[in-house]
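Hypothesis: this fold can be encoded by more than one sequence.
Test: take the C-alpha cells below, design a sequence, compare later.
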C-alpha cells in the first residue's frame, strides 16, 4: 500500500537474466565440460563413485556460473530490499555501476563465499538425497516420486538456506563505510549470537513454497529419462 503493487517485482529483471544465463547456459555448459573431463561411473553398479563425480562436476559448474552472473544476483537482492519511496537505484545496470563506482568491483562480489558453500551444500543434499531415497524406497507412481522429491527439496533447502541468509546480509552492507559484518564467518557468528538459530531461516517459508518447482523438475527428469531409455 505504501509503494504500489509494482514494488513487489523490484529486481525481477536482474533475477530473470541471472537465472537464464546461470541455469540454462553457463551451468549446463560447464557441467558438460567437467563431466567430459572427470571419470565416468555407472549409476547402478558404481553408485558412490558416480555420486561423487556428479557432486563435483555440478558444484564446480555452479561455482563458475555464479562467478559470471553474481553481479546480477547482487543487483536483484539490493533492488528487492530497497523499501524507500524513492529507490536508491533505477535498475540492475544502475545498481551495478553505482556500487562499482563507490566501492570498486570487489563490492559486487560481497557474500560470494557463502554462495559457493551454499551451492555445494544444496547440490549434495538435492541430488544425493534424491538418489538415495529412490534406491531405498523405490517409489513407482509419479505421485509418490513427487512426494519423495518434495521432501528432498525441503531438506536441501534447509541445509543451504543459512548460507543464503549470510549472503544477503553481506550484499546489503556492500559499499557501507562502517560495515556490521567483517567477513562471512563473522556474519554467521553474529547472526547466531544476536538472533539465534532461527535468524538463519527468516523468509524460508516463501522459499519452501517455491521448492515445488524443484521437486517437479526432479520427477520430470526421471520420467523423461525412463521414456528415453
Amino acid at each position: 500500500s505504501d509503494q504500489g503493487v509494482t514494488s513487489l517485482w523490484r529486481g525481477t529483471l536482474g533475477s530473470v537474466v541471472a537465472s537464464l544465463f546461470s541455469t540454462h547456459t553457463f551451468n549446463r555448459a560447464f557441467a558438460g565440460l567437467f563431466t567430459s573431463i572427470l571419470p565416468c561411473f555407472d549409476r547402478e553398479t558404481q553408485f558412490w563413485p558416480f555420486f561423487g563425480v556428479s557432486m563435483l562436476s555440478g558444484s564446480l559448474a555452479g561455482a563458475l556460473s555464479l562467478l559470471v552472473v553474481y553481479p546480477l544476483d547482487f543487483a536483484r537482492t539490493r533492488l528487492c530490499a530497497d523499501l524507500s519511496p524513492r529507490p536508491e537505484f533505477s535498475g540492475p545496470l544502475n545498481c551495478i555501476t553505482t556500487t562499482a563506482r563507490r566501492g570498486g568491483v570487489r563490492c559486487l562480489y560481497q557474500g560470494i563465499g557463502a554462495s559457493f558453500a551454499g551451492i555445494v551444500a544444496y547440490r549434495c543434499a538435492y541430488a544425493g538425497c534424491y538418489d538415495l531415497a529412490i534406491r531405498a524406497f523405490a517409489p513407482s507412481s509419479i505421485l509418490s516420486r513427487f512426494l519423495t522429491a518434495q521432501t528432498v527439496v525441503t531438506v536441501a533447502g534447509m541445509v543451504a538456506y543459512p548460507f543464503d541468509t549470510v549472503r544477503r546480509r553481506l550484499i546489503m552492507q556492500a559499499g557501507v563505510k562502517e560495515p556490521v559484518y567483517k567477513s562471512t564467518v563473522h556474519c554467521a557468528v553474529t547472526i547466531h549470537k544476536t538472533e539465534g538459530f532461527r535468524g538463519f531461516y527468516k523468509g524460508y517459508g516463501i522459499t519452501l513454497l517455491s521448492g515445488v518447482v524443484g521437486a517437479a523438475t526432479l520427477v520430470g527428469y526421471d520420467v523423461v529419462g525412463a521414456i528415453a531409455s
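The CA atoms of residues 215 and 221 lie 10 Å apart. The radius of gyration is 19 Å.
Hypothesis status: open.
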